[in-house]
Amino acid sequence: MKNNLKKIFLLGIIGLVISCSDTEKEVDRLFDGTTRGAVLRTIPSESSLVFRVGVPDEVKITVDVIDVEMGGLAEKIDVFLSFSDNNPDDGDNSFAETLIETIPASAFVTGGEFPRVTITLNGGDIQSQFGLTEDDYTGGDVFKLRLALTLTDGRVFTDTNVSNIVAGGLFYRSPFVYNISVTCPLGEDFIVGMYNLEVIEGVFPAFGATIDWLEGPVQIIQPDGPTSGRRQIVSACYLPEFGTFCGPFNFELVCNEVLIPEQAAGGGVGCGAAIILNQNPNDVGIYDPLDDTVFELIYQNNINNSGNCAGASEYRQILRLTKI
């Protein structure tokens, strides 16, 4: 089993060093022998899902349009938005999914490897579109933005017909849906620096694993800058008994709660698909805004056995981080 996991890890490494010519091979591999399929690949370096109360943030999502004709089959992208008011004590301001924009293929930016689209949204857009004010949303509320790609033959691709390997894979990163958590401003150096990682609960339920993450010192940074609530463990190593499966671990500080966005564990390791972890909305970690000495990450791992590993299932996990 160690050898199998090492092989999977080596495949992941190969994916990380894809060259321009290899990118075309990757697309050919996805669509080989079929007329089905199109993806919107998220570009993390040009995307920001930060939305803070009282701060003029701009949510930005940048995607590449990829199909068998290198984006040439796309007709349009529809952009939908919904809102979940998770603080309904003063009234529930939630609204159902609504079409807010249609971007025709003629508006895609060309000249790169694939056509590219950037969707932006700010507080003013939301307030004018839905009649909300800043008093109607607060930390812990969530906007959900969904994209739907329509091809020239009428087929539509969105989050309901995308596989795990496309949604969470290292190359495609094409979930089609994005959760935008409303956050509260934090101190510039809050939960930043060196922390000791400790596994409190949860172990991968297959292969005889006894420890999920490599315990010890880790570095936490602010990848979106000092005003963002998003934090990142630079390198968290998953299933250390079977290899070196390391990658970033992202989390968000949202008004006393530590939220875990959907992401691949250990840089994308799995058994044919990436093992995906995500937040359980009814089971979250808490932080003290006046004391960043210790906090916990609580989430669900291997969502719906996303890694396709025999004998595995979804499980709850708690990681404790203590400032060094």
Model description:
The protein is mainly β and 324 residues long. The protein folds into two domains: 19-29 and 38-183, Immunoglobulin-like (Sandwich); 193-323, Lipocalin (Beta Barrel). It has helices at 2-16, 20-31, 123-130, 164-168; strands at residues 39-42, 51-52, 58-66, 74-84, 95-104, 116-122, 142-151, 156-157, 177-183, 193-201, 216-221, 230-238, 245-254, 257-259, 263-264, 276-277, 285-286, 294-301, 315-323. The chain has an eight-stranded antiparallel sheet, with no helix packed on it. Strands 2, 4, 5, 7, 8 and 9 form a six-stranded mixed sheet that branches. A three-stranded antiparallel sheet has the order 1-3-6. A hairpin with a 2-residue loop joins strand 13 (245-254) and strand 14 (257-259). The longest helix has 15 residues, at 2-16. The two termini are 35 Å apart. Mean pLDDT is 83; it is low at 1-23, 30-35 and 167-172.
What's the gist of this structure?
It contains four helices and 19 strands. The protein is mainly beta and 324 residues long.
